[in-house]
Amino acid sequence: MIVVMNINATAREISDVIARIRAMGYDVHLSEGKERTIIGVIGRGRPIDREQLALMSGVQSVMPVSHPFKIASREYHPDDTLIPLNGIMVGGPNLAIIAGPCSVESREQIIETAYAVREAGATALRGGAFKPRSSPYAFQGLGEEGLRYLAEAREATGLPVVTEVMDPQLVPLVCQYADVLQIGARNMQNYTLLHAVGESQHPVLLKRGMSSTIEELLMSAEYILSHGNMRVMVCERGIRTFETYTRNTFDINAIPVLKRLSHLPVIADPSHGVGRWEYVESVALAAVAAGADGLIIEVHPQPEQALSDGQQSLRPERFAELVARVRQLAPVVGRQVAEPQLQQV
Ligand code: PEP
Ligand code: MN
Asked: Which residues have C-beta atoms less than 6 Å from ligand 1?
């Protein structure tokens, strides 16, 4: 349930409503929008007399939230959530472009890729140090050594680092190196991990599980938000279907649906979404046209030698072409891609 306050409600009226809700055994979550404050009623308490709350001074209306996700919903937070990343606000008119290899493989590989993607106009660097692989015999990532190389690449290029965390116990370690914690598709419903990244208060890129519904994705976001960590981006990365020519089926529908249901920024991952480099640019452009707030793209200097996901990784030159095409398309849908020199920190 949410309590929508009047536009001119006073601080005193807001605190009185909060005190009343807490007295009934609930937690509150505040959404201070451009126009008005909305108070979210969270948890389980005594039955609430909505009419009584509605009569309190400064209250405009009391409404049930029609979705199971509450803090993630647009009803509760009508304005887009904006998350700062390297001088832009993700969720605003500037598109975020996160790029880099699937895995950090060596110091040279990540630093070379970081320079190349920055040159092409990337906002942030991606690279996995802890890799969720289908086979226990496949490359599992360099672990903390990989995190150190990512930090060196950030030092060299100024690009913030997006990297996956798979284990709740490793959240504090990964936070020391990462600017954004990635939750991978396979861990979207690892609730212990979601609690841990929520508590960390670190920005999060939450990927949709390959067999998860949009509602399940937003419920997972809700776990993180329920810890007061509002810096969550949700990511469409393709779902599993009967199609075999592509690795996954990028669910373009998810982008406008997520934008309508939620205020959280939506990032598109065409690399995993289609799984073959030849199609990554087309799907990236489609995602931008559909309203995505950013892209995450796999780039590798020598895809044929990549230790993971080489078949869907772009060479730096192709990535630069992709960014150039996105730059052309962006204004048509009211967006822009910041010029690289504006992104220096
Ligand atoms: C990745 O980003 O390399 C990755 C493992 O993605 P996903 O969790 O979407 O499969
Ligand atoms: Mn990958």
From this structure: 102, 128, 132, 184-186, 207, 237, 272
